[in-house]
Structures are given as structure tokens and as C-alpha cells.
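Q&A log
Question type: sequence-to-structure
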Amino acid sequence: MAPRPGGGRREAGREVPGRQRRERWRRSPAAAGRGRECSCGEVTEEDSVLNASQDLRRDIDEVKISLQNKAVVLQRTLLVNAIGHLGSQQEIYEKEQKSIDLRKQRFSLKQIGEQKWLQLPHLMKKQEEQESMTVSRSVKKLHDHLHEERELTTIIQTVFQIILMASNANWAEDLSLKEVVLKLETDAYLL
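Response status: OK
Response body:
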């Protein structure tokens, strides 16, 4: 029998209010004789009170057990909700940490990008200087090679002039020799 609001109790699938329960008890054989019969055949009032108090104790015990069961169910429900809440709090915390990590990573990448952007003019200038130095070395190398070629040409011209003079050939009359001699007299640095 479970307690009901308004002081009623459930008996045989229906609710019985407190007043009706008392009426039934009064009509019961125990109440009719006011308890059990004494040695003289009468039921004492003390026995009927004892029976009523036992019934009330039983009812109180049932109510206590029912309350304890409900308290256990409530505690379980609260515990499940708390665990679920903690789980969702943990998920929220992890997601916030991931978000913070992503923001930090983006910020560091942004800073690196800004540093590279600021270094870009310096890097371009350095590259131009390196290219300029490479070109300058190449030009100097070509210039040195040209200078060597001119000196060699001057030496060859001088040797040919000496050979022509030593041969006592009349180069002025021979057109092909005249042309060669005139070319030999041209300064190699003017070419």
C-alpha cells in the first residue's frame, strides 16, 4: 500500500481516503469488539489501540521505504545528470582549448607572415646585390679576357710587322700585303 496525497492509501487497485479507512476499521471485527477478547470474553481497548499502532507502524515503514526508494532514484538521476553535465563540460573545455590553440597558431602564422613581408624589401635588395655582384664579376672577367686578347693581338701585329720589315718585301706594291700591313698598324684597343 502506497501513501497518497490527502492522507489516502491504495487498497486493491483503488485509493481509499483516510476517513474511509478509519470507518472500515471501526466496522471490522477487531473494532467491533475493541480488540481481542479478554478472559471474560471482551476485547480490550488496549488491544485495539495496539493493532491500530501496528497498522500505523507498518504504514510508516512502507512510506519510509517508498521515500528511500524515491530518494535513491532521485540520487541516481541527479548523478547521471551530473556525470552528463561533467562530460559536456569536458567536451566544451576541450573544444575551447582547440579553439584557443587554433587562434594562437593563426596569430603566430600572422606574425611570421608580417615578419616575412617586412623582410621582403631587404631580401630583394640582397638578391639584387648578389645578381649585381655576379654580373659585375662576369663583366670584369669578360673585360680581363678582352684585355688579354688585345694584348695578344698587339703582340701578333708587332711580330708580323717585324717579319715584314725583316723580309725586305715591297708591301706597298703588293695590294694584298698592303692591306695586311695597314690592318696591322691599326691599334687593337680601337677595335
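Response note: The longest helix spans residues 45-166.
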